[in-house]
Amino acid sequence: MTDSEQHEKNQDERQVVQDSSSKPKSASKIFLEQVDEGKSEHKRSSRNLLMSSVAGGMEVGFSLLLLGIIHTSFSEALSDNHLKWILAAGYPIGFIFVIIGRSELFTEHTNLAFVPVLNGSVGIKSLFRVWGIVFLGNLMGGYVVSFLLTLLGPSMGIITEESFYKLAFKLVDHSYGTILISSITAGWLMGLLSWLVSSSQETISRILMVFIITALIGLGGLHHSIVGSIEVFAGLLVSDITFAQYGHFQLWSTIGNLIGGVFFVSLLKFSTVKNRDKG
After folding, report:
1. CA 270 to CA 119: how far, in whole Å?
2. pTM of the model
3. Tens-place pLDDT, residues 213-233
4. Which UniProt keywords apply (predicted)?
5. Measured at the alpha carbon of residue 127, what is the angle toward residues 227 and 182, in degrees to the nearest 5?
6. How many beta carbons lie within 10 A of that of residue 242, not counting itself?
7. CATH tag, 25-278
8. Which of these, 246, 109, 127, 104, lies nearest to 187 by C-alpha position?
9. How far apart are CA 237 and CA 164, in angstroms?
10. Of the candidates 219, 216, 221, 243, which has an alpha carbon nearest to the alpha carbon of residue 232?
């Protein structure tokens, strides 16, 4: 084979790779990828999961840092409606750090850890182990961030205690029914996000997906059990928000996020994939 023929062959091979990578993934392929990723999470040691989850809880806490700075800087200059849009634009930052950085986030694992159970690859006991460890680790990391930010923010003049309070109060000032429905919606969106991230093949596309979905959660004021926990716990540390209010929020937002994430996978995407395979 001549050099020119070899060059043309290499170009053709690269073109095939590029064409295949540019094609959108099928629903079945995305589902199988999520099964494989979920199975790898179930195989991880408890210690490894916990450490990654603590890191995830701390990383997602950077959302509160940015939200607090924005609220402190613009709350007096802007109307509540305009401020809401700017806060929503800042809400995704912690999610981008966690999801793109591949740390563990409970609401993502609500979906991801459940997929292998539907597939029959792992059992319920393993599912509860992963959920429990990731949830606990995220809360632990979140508590650390809340404590540090409530010390750092006021002392440096970048976040006021009033901003911590207002960000927290908007989450706890609801009935259990409202929090439940709101968190189901947020869990559904996080399940969708996990699916969209798996379908995206480039980092910039994944960042865009994370931004769109989580900005929508922030704009809607929907209840996220981990970021919301960080916000409410910070408010608890610096204001008259009580442990009872925190517990009320945490209980119903966690239940709702679980329902939303599991419903999205089990009743929608999994059913869709099965029907397509049968077809």
Report:
1. 9
2. 0.87
3. 999 999 999 999 999 999 999
4. Membrane, Transmembrane, Transmembrane helix
5. 35
6. 11
7. 1.20.1080.10
8. 109
9. 9
10. 243
